[in-house]
Amino acid sequence: MSDLGAGFGYLMKGQRWVAQHGRWFGFGLLPGLVTLVVYAGALIGLGYGADDLVGWATPFADDWSSPWQDLLRTGLTALVFVLGLFLAVITFTAVTLLVGQPFYESLSEEVDRSEGGEVPESGLPLWRELWISARDSVRILLRVALYGITLFACGFIPVVGQTVVPAIGFCVSGYFLAEELTAVALQRRGMVLKDRLVLLRGRRLLALGFGVPLVLAFLIPVVAVFLMPGAVAGATLLARDLVDPDPDTEPRPGTADSGDVPPAPRAWSA
Predict the structure, then answer these.
(1) Neighbours of 156 (CB within 10 A)
(2) CA-CA 20 to 30 A from 10: which of 65, 114, 135, 218?
(3) In whole angstroms, what is the distance from residue 136 CA to residue 131 CA?
(4) Dihedral sign, CA of 226, 25, 92, 171?
(5) Residues 39, 95, 219, 72: what is their CA dihedral angle, to the nearest 10 degrees?
(6) Could you list the pLDDT tens digit for every one of the 270 residues in the chain?
(7) Residue 143 has what pLDDT?
(8) Cα(25)–Cα(110) distance, rounded to whole angstroms?
(9) Nearest to 92 by CA among 218, 236, 239
(10) Of 39, 244, 267, 79, nearest to 254 (Cα)?
(11) pLDDT score of 257
(12) Where are the domains positioned within the chain?
């Protein structure tokens, strides 16, 4: 359970880092502001149109008497909006990272530089980095969509659907959010998506401790924008620990001296 606290600690360290480097904080705000405007419009549109969408999808309930028709459609409308919010939380990071690729690459490199040691660089042209980021983001979003559909269906289970399912949803969101954010630093270290997922699976609690609080904060759209620069900084610090842990500590799962070592980073591939 100590990894949960450690993950949250990296999130706080990242926020402190950008607070101490005000220029980089402002630099990292720009992509989030652009994405926020687009997503706010989409969610407002969903809020106005969800009831019409549910009415179109449930013609069999047109002849139902009150209150059963209202209960069904109100419940489904709420689920549609929650699902849209769930997807927005996940895709917000992916889209913001894609829009702000040059910004966050520079921020992540500066964090590495300030911490000392090697400052890895991908050595790839910008268009290639954008292509790889977009491709990996689509792969992650497909995984998230599968979880989202499953959780949406489980939401109809009485009691469990209103208690356990939302909790699992936040954990799924937090885990993949941590993957998206650490990808900025890990891609510069030559790690492809498969290797990054293996690395995070070895430290699930660390990823959850970092990602779940961030997901909860990201439910407030404006907060997401202001936390993004620190989230990238914290994810870079977390990535440094994953690939180059403190040599004075005991080996941990998923690190270089443990029994479940992930594959060595591979060269970039298309």
Answers:
(1) 12
(2) 135
(3) 9
(4) negative
(5) 60
(6) 688 889 899 999 999 999 998 888 888 888 888 888 888 888 888 778 777 777 777 777 667 777 777 777 777 777 777 777 777 776 777 788 888 888 888 899 999 998 887 777 766 677 777 788 788 878 887 887 788 788 878 877 777 777 788 888 889 888 988 988 998 888 888 888 888 888 888 888 999 999 999 988 877 767 878 998 999 999 999 998 888 765 444 444 443 334 344 444 433 333
(7) 84
(8) 12
(9) 218
(10) 244
(11) 39
(12) 1-244
In angstroms, how far is the first alpha carbon of the chain from the final one?
A: 38
Q: Quick one: tokens of 224?
A: 């997401």
In b/e form, how buried is each residue of 91-126, taking b as 16+ CB within 10 angstroms? Answer: bbbbbbbbbbbebbbebbbbbbeeeeeeebeeeeee
Q: How far apart are CA 103 and CA 149, in angstroms?
A: 33
DSSP output for 3-33 = HHHHHHHHHHHHHHHHHH-HHHHHHHHHHHH
Q: Give the list of residues 6+ apart from residue 159 with CB closer than 8 angstroms, or none.
A: none
User: What is the distance between the alpha carbons of residues 175 and 168, in angstroms, rounded to a whole number?
Assistant: 11
In whole angstroms, give the CA distance from residue 92 to residue 43: 12
Amino acid at 42: A
Closest residue by Cα to residue 23 from 234, 229, 235: 229
Pick from 237, 173, 243, 241: nearest CA to 211: 173
> Could you tell me if 123 and 132 are in contact, meaning their C-beta atoms sit under 8 angstroms apart?
no
Compute the radius of gyration of the chain from its Cα atoms.
20
